[in-house]
Design brief:
The model has no long low-confidence stretch (mean pLDDT 85). This protein is mostly helical. Strand 1 (170-171) and strand 2 form a beta hairpin. It folds into two domains: 4-108, DNA polymerase, domain 1, CATH 1.10.150; 125-304, Intergrase catalytic core (hpI Integrase, Chain A, Orthogonal Bundle). The chain is built from 16 helices and three strands. Helix 2 crosses helix 4 (76-96), helix 3 (58-70) packs antiparallel against helix 4 and helix 4 (76-96) runs antiparallel to helix 5 (101-108).
Length: 328
């Protein structure tokens, strides 16, 4: 094996383990290096096990990032995420391979790309109602899908947080909440309405489920995958579009439901700092795009700051000398 292979193995088995990286982080970094090594193999005509650390220079990394955008069609956020994985590895390699310090320094100097400001897509109340009404309530899978969509819109959980929920994470009672293990190993609790809490209780009783069982299981009782959630959402959006055509014109993803939660809270007058805590954001910076997306709030602000429409008379000086100075 080359110098790259043992360092890369040590990074995944030691460095990430020492930092207690989440399984989502490990999976994302693994995918980043799988793509990078395959790109390097194609570009350099060398198998990944024979690559040296010097082969992954700044020029190759830059070409890889461009390939992600222009060939694979990845967005800027995905490009920057792949670069984050590369930076993390090369920071580790700097301590293990000082002889490659120049190459490592050049790679670490590659800047992240600034993303374009895109408009946040969210569902209106009418579109949300149509989506929630689309699953078939007479079938177990239909009731599962309805509850999954309801909890997603009400709590704003990430799709990975939704699929990881167990029956024990849903706490019934007057102050019903759902507990989740979020991004960055953060745990948070999100309140549920009484209606949703009762529906979840009935769902758990119907299945005679144990606390460790998945809250939204597959046909075989396992946890749904994120791709499965995206597929069932596409199916129900298509059904909802028959009665609500506007939802069919939108690109609705599981994250759109999260955006919808944030916009509902914003319309209810909830402060952005509270919304950030609700969604599990590290700072309020991630919540700012919702303010830009809310045209209603902008219109209300415009109404409050509209200038007085009263006609203004032109200034007339009251003295000949002042008139002379006015016309200079």
């Amino acid at each position: 094996m080359s110098a790259l292979a043992p360092v890369l193995e040590g990074y995944f088995t030691q460095r990430l383990a020492q930092r207690r990286a989440s399984r989502h982080t490990i999976a994302a970094y693994r995918d980043a290096f799988t793509l990078l090594l395959r790109f390097a193999q194609q570009r350099l005509r060398k198998p990944p096990a024979s690559l040296d650390l010097a082969d992954l220079n700044a020029a190759l990394i830059g070409a890889f990032l461009d390939d992600l955008e222009h060939t694979r069609g990845n967005g800027v956020a995905t490009r920057n995420l792949r670069l984050t994985a590369v930076d993390s590895f090369f920071s580790y390699a700097a301590l293990r391979c000082p002889e490659h310090a120049a190459v490592i320094q050049q790679v670490l100097a590659i800047p992240t790309k600034r993303p374009d400001c895109t408009t946040v897509t969210f569902l209106t109340h009418t579109e949300t109602d149509a989506l929630l009404a689309s699953p078939d309530p007479t079938s177990p899978l239909g009731r599962r899908d309805h509850l999954l969509l309801l909890v997603a819109v009400e709590t704003g959980l990430r799709v990975s947080e939704l699929t990881a929920l167990t029956c024990g994470d849903a706490t019934p009672g007057p102050a019903a909440v759902v507990h989740c293990h979020g991004k960055g190993r953060k745990q948070r609790s999100t309140p549920l309405t009484a209606t949703t809490a009762r529906a979840l209780q009935a769902w758990i009783r119907e299945r005679d489920a144990q606390p460790t069982d998945p809250l939204f299981p597959t046909r075989f009782g396992g946890h749904l995958s994120t791709d499965a959630v995206a597929d069932l959402l596409d199916k129900h959006v298509a059904t909802a579009a028959r009665t609500c055509p506007s939802i069919g014109a939108k690109r609705v993803t599981p994250h759109t439901l999260r955006h919808t939660t944030a916009m509902n809270l914003l319309h209810a007058g909830v402060d952005t700092s509270v919304i950030a805590l609700w969604l599990g954001h590290a700072t309020t910076k991630s919540t700012q795009p919702y303010l830009h997306a809310d045209l209603k709030l902008k219109e209300q602000a415009l109404a409050r700051t509209a200038p007085n429409r009263a006609a203004r008379a032109r200034f007339q000086p009251d003295d000949e000398l002042l008139a002379f100075l006015e016309h200079l």
